[in-house]
């Protein structure tokens, strides 16, 4: 049955023209693509390319969903998540709930190269970063303060609490458990750009693969929340014997299915990247039919693809590609299904 499904997807999404080296990333973050491509063109490694591309988005605060000054949590604080993976060695470095440090992808690489660990979180991750020479800076901006103030003024809606109720003397919080809570409509998916990520895959001319992510998470998240971005196999995955993938969207749902890992393993069995992406999305869709999410995929021969789930307000997904054929970042899109 699996073989039949794989063949069907491959026929629906046949191989396109391959070209190496290659950079592919989520969303229309052109400057990030250009930064990564420039690294590859100057002889840098795929790890350098992914780090530089994601760092560019951190500096430019892409869509307000990457880097400092965006997605304040319930306390009004912006925290960052990032991951980088070496597809040659299968080493991973990741940080989550990072405070005070703007260059999250840089700290993730430091975790990979300066420790035997894979993931550091919270205040301890921030202290590690400071010990590694990363400057401590305020991640709050006027924009993030305004977002937080407006949220407080709306009785802390939308939020991500359930089966709890606030102190009746307060507009919101502190929250206490409640056995049953009346069903109420939450605006969780009202803004599909409230929880984006830059996810990037780079493949050089010899087929070496790296992947990475960077995000400031989800607007109004419960403090301490970690999404899919810094989780290996969920936010991103790279294996130089098969390819790389990265996901974006509702990380609380997507991380449960390790879509990036699944897509890479499907490519290993011969699936075209577009088919692998679609099958990874289909697996999630069976359980959460209207979830917001997308995935990009690239194999070691330079073929690439993407897929997204059709959900309210989200019918098409945009991503960027740069390869030796285009020699410049090109905006691509795929219709959601």
UniProtKB/TrEMBL annotation:
Active site (record annotation): 197 (nucleophile)
CDD domains linked to this entry: Glycosylasparaginase (cd04513)
Keywords: Autocatalytic cleavage, Hydrolase, Protease, Signal
CC per GO annotation: lysosome
Pfam families to which the protein is assigned, alphabetical: Asparaginase_2
Domain of life the protein comes from: Eukaryota
PANTHER family, alphabetized: L-ASPARAGINASE, N(4)-(BETA-N-ACETYLGLUCOSAMINYL)-L-ASPARAGINASE
Task performed by this protein: Cleaves the GlcNAc-Asn bond which joins oligosaccharides to the peptide of asparagine-linked glycoproteins.
The name this protein goes by in its record: N(4)-(Beta-N-acetylglucosaminyl)-L-asparaginase
Organism expressing this protein natively: Pleuronectes platessa (European plaice)
